[in-house]
Specification:
It contains two helices and four strands. By secondary structure, the chain is an alpha+beta fold. It has two domains: 1-42, Pemi-like Protein 1, Chain: D (Ribbon), CATH 2.10.260; 46-76, no CATH class.
Length: 79
């Protein structure tokens, strides 16, 4: 979906409601590319696994220490 966004005098733009509901975040990364600006939503948790010997967890919005400890235990298979 391509849409036109309006820039307000305060420098703000409004993300269409359908995108806000789809990504369920209020944080975005804006990146300048050769084609122009690229907006990417930040999600609360991103899990990725590279191979059997390595497991990575990424929390771009941060995470409570207690929740991190739980996620690490789950990743190590101790729970």
């Amino acid at each position: 979906m391509i849409t036109t966004l309006k820039l307000f005098g305060t420098g703000q733009i409004t993300i269409p409601k359908i995108w806000r509901e789809k990504y369920k975040t209020d944080r975005y990364i804006a990146q300048e590319t050769p084609q122009g600006l690229l907006l990417k939503p930040l999600v609360e948790e991103l899990f990725y696994e590279d191979n059997e010997d390595y497991f990575g967890i990424n929390f771009p919005l941060g995470i409570d220490a207690k929740d991190l400890a739980l996620k690490l235990k789950e990743a190590n298979g101790t729970i």
